[in-house]
Fold this protein.
Amino acid sequence: MARKTGSHSDITGPKIRAAALRLFARSGFAAVSMRQIAAEVGVQAGALYLYTPDKQSLLFDLMQSHLQDLLAAWRAQPIGADPHARLKAFARFHILYHLDRPDAVFVAYMELRSLTADNFARIEILRRAYEDQLEDILRQGQAAGVFQVPDSKLATLAVIAMLTGVNTWYRREGRLSPERVADLYADMVLRAVGVP
Amino acid sequence: MARKTGSHSDITGPKIRAAALRLFARSGFAAVSMRQIAAEVGVQAGALYLYTPDKQSLLFDLMQSHLQDLLAAWRAQPIGADPHARLKAFARFHILYHLDRPDAVFVAYMELRSLTADNFARIEILRRAYEDQLEDILRQGQAAGVFQVPDSKLATLAVIAMLTGVNTWYRREGRLSPERVADLYADMVLRAVGVP
DNA sequence: GTCTATATGCTGATAGAC
DNA sequence: GTCTATCAGCATATAGAC
């Protein structure tokens, strides 16, 4: 594609999104000004409005992209039919994927209240679609007699909360590798649903 | 104690704290103005500064009080020496106590980044003291051969994340009572640490 | 595509009247 | 103890020059 002289739109756009994500994660959506985002990118505040209609849309786009990418990545995972293997794969996938994107995860979980009602509803649909992936596994295992899950919805929420919690304390410099953490959590998850 | 005519300080103070907690939980610390808090209470913005030196102190006091109350309430629980019973009691206590104070819990977990460095450090000490209560139980059970917890710190964080997660989805109008949720979660926690 | 300049309004906090 | 009035600054978003 031809590009006009002096045009930076193909690089400035992503830079704005990256800067906004980092700042929203660190300080919170309401506490970050458009001027701060612009300063991080190296442009003036007015220039941001070439790439987003307003601040709210910027937040929504970041959250929507994160959840869409998450769903696509999980659906691209090679998984078999065995409930035990599927649950273990989900637990490991969830932790490793989330540990790789701490800022996006943080914003997607903490800034739900900063969304307008319409945008919140759209994000909720994506979040539920992801939860349903896990609930299907738990139901399948329960039906097969492999898991003991008296309430599959409750167990789904419990497992996801436990797995996502890793992001609140994990530090790259710590004593455990992501792989090790993922394995230890996968074991706890399996036991929690009744696998000895 | 004698009280001056026209003085409302003994009622306005708590009202300010209650309004601030509710608004901070709903919209986030940075998104709530002192004028909004004052309007909720029914006074003018300037009057708030008779009860708090600034907005930051108001947030810190709310978080500190919540964690101090939480620790005191747990320490007042009657618990025996059996690791199995102690862990079950902790899980049930954590869920029931937290479900009763959704706003305080929400603020204490979501607004950590809104604290100054000094205040953050003081809150972290309280939070760790509470986590240590659970870790002691897990270590005791591991030593007694009742639990299978290869990494007690990791298991502590996993269990707390799972239990606290209830607050993100529980609704009073829902199909499950707090007692029922607490029991179901206690079972999952016990299984997660290796109790059959 | 980015800049500067600007509009309109809200922010936390303080001073002084009552 | 509460009010009104106010300060100085920063917010989002837009208009028009280059």
